[in-house]
Each structure stands twice: as C-alpha cells, then as structure tokens.
C-alpha cells in the first residue's frame, strides 16, 4: 500500500505495469476508489505505466473536513504526479475525475499530453442539486441513497446481475464527509472556459444508459475540444469501465496507439 502527503492530504495510490513505461493516469468518480479501473487495467497492453489513486475523502486516502474545492482536487493530482516525477502522461478521468482531468490538462501541459474524458461534462448538475445531495448525505447517510445512485449509474441489465452489489457496497462504505466534500467541489465547478481552450489529443466517452451524465452532455464537452474523438458505448451507464471493461480497454488501447503513446502487444 503506497501513500504520499500531497497538498495537506495523504493520498493512496497504486502503480501497475511497466515502471519505465509510458504513463497512463486514472482519476475516478464520486463514491468509488481506484478499484474502479481494475478490469480495464487487466486488459491493457504491456509497456504502460498505469497509475491510479484515491481522491481525497475516498478509498484509502485521508478524509479532510468538507467542503472541498475543485481547485484543491486538481492540485492533489498535480502534486501526486509531481512527487512521482510523471510527465507527458495520458490522463483518463471519469465523472468528477474527468473534471479533474480537464483542470489539470489546462494547468499543466508539461504533465498531460492527452486526455480521455469519460462520462463527464464541463459542468455537472446544478449548485442546488448538489446542495440537496449534501444535505441528504448528512441526514440519511449513503446507505439510504445507494439504490438511487445505482439507478443513475448502471443499465438495468447490469443492476439485475450479480456484479452490481459490490459497487453498491463501495458507495455505502465511502466516508460521508468525503462524499459530501466532493459534492461541494462539483457544485462549484464550471470548466467551459479552460476546456474550450484545450489543444491536445482527446477522446470523450459516453454511456447510452448514463443517468448521471447523459450522452448529450458528454457530446457537448467533446464539441469544445477541436479534433476530439467521441465514442458512445451502447448499453452502458455512468461507469462503462465497470460494465464493459473489455470494450472500454479496447477503446483506450486504440486511442493510445493512435497518438503513439507506449505499449506493446
């Protein structure tokens, strides 16, 4: 188990693959930890240095008092990658992880050479919606909210299968303070200006059954980045890397090959 003190918070991280390979960094969604990417990592080609981490308030990272600011969450990942001496990485971010990816790509062109923005937007929801979510977390707890979260996250077919319960437990065991803190960060975030200025290779992925960041929202994000590749994963919800990891890994592998980013078959 690895962790580093970054930006006043101990962040848990993991490195798989080739330690000398081309870096690919993963940033996950609200209510999940770095295990979100387990099945994708297993299907990626050799020759890549695969870096995952738990954002503040999630997984095995420290949980500072809420609320959090999106700028601090971007600085968390920036500080972690600086400490690990990572440069020229491809950053794969899903949902709030995709917002973090947008912010870091706009801030550190020396660090990020390409982005994969998955099931995300320049702005997600409204400030009022997130304030209601924060109040609900404090009043009811995540266990009371998890059924509704699963409906937003996953296709009906996936929800009816045996693979869904562990994801529900992951949400329910997320620290309430961490969940509320990240909700506050999302509530205050709007990346339309920095993201519309991005000029780097980008792939944007949506899930056709996504109830949290619908495909039209994700496509609007793709339209802001000149030359961005847009992919719609049919039958998948908000976490297509969990529902269809082989398909997701194939898209990611193809994108990495198209930009000449490491890896070998």
Label this structure with key terms.
265 residues; alpha/beta; eight-stranded mixed β-sheet; 8 strands; 19% strand; globular
Structural topology:
Layout lengths: L1 E5 L2 E9 L4 E6 L10 H4 L6 E6 L16 H14 L5 E6 L1 H12 L4 E7 L8 H14 L1 H12 L2 H4 L5 H8 L3 H12 L4 H5 L5 E6 L7 H10 L4 E5 L6 H4 L1 H14 L7
Helix pairs in contact: 2-3, 4-8, 5-7
Structural summary, described in words:
The protein has 265 residues and is α/β, with parallel strands linked by helices. Helices cover 43% and strands 19% of the residues. The protein has an 8-stranded mixed β-sheet, with helices on both faces. Strand 7 (202-207), helix 10 and strand 8 (229-233) form a beta-alpha-beta unit. Helix 2 packs across helix 3, helix 4 runs antiparallel to helix 8 (176-187) and helix 5 packs across helix 7. The longest helix has 14 residues, at 70-83. The radius of gyration is 17 Å and the shape is globular. It starts with a strand and ends in a 7-residue tail after the last helix.
Radius of gyration: 17 Å
Instruction: Describe the largest sheet.
Output: 8 strands, mixed
Order of helices and strands: EEEHEHEHEHHHHHHEHEHH
Oligomeric status: single chain
**How many β strands by DSSP?**
8
- The level of helicity is 40-55%
Q: Strands across the major sheet, in which order?
A: 1-2-4-3-5-6-7-8
Tertiary shape: globular
- Which structural class should the secondary elements be placed in? alpha/beta
| Mean of residue pLDDT values | 97
Q: Alpha-carbon distance between the termini?
A: 29 Å
SS field, number of helical segments = 12
Q: Would you identify the regions where 5 or more consecutive residues have pLDDT less than 50?
A: none
How much strand content do the residues show?
15-25%
């Amino acid at each position: 188990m690895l962790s580093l003190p970054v930006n006043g918070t101990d962040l848990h991280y993991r490195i798989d693959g080739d330690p000398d390979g081309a870096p690919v960094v993963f940033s996950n969604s609200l209510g999940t930890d770095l295990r979100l990417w387990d099945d994708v990592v297993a299907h990626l080609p050799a020759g890549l240095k695969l870096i995952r981490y738990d954002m503040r308030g999630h997984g095995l990272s420290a949980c500072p008092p809420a609320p959090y600011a999106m700028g601090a969450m971007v600085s968390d990942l920036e500080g972690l990658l600086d400490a690990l001496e990572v440069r020229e990485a491809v950053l794969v971010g899903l949902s709030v992880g995709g917002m973090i990816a947008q912010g870091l790509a706009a801030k550190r062109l020396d660090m990020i050479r390409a982005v994969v923005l998955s099931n995300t937007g320049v702005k997600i929801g409204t400030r009022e919606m997130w304030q209601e979510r924060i109040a609900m977390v404090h009043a009811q707890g995540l266990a009371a909210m998890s059924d509704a979260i699963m409906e937003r996250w996953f296709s009906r077919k996936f929800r009816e299968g045996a693979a869904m319960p562990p994801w529900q437990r992951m949400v329910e065991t997320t620290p309430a303070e961490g969940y509320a803190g990240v909700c506050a960060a999302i509530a205050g975030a709007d990346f339309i200006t920095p993201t519309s200025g991005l000029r780097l290779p980008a792939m944007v992925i949506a899930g056709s059954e996504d109830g949290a960041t619908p495909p039209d929202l994700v496509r609007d994000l793709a339209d802001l980045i000149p030359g961005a590749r847009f992919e719609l994963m049919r039958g998948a919800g908000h976490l297509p890397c969990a529902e269809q990891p082989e398909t997701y890994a194939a898209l990611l592998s193809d994108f990495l090959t198209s930009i000449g980013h490491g890896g070998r078959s």
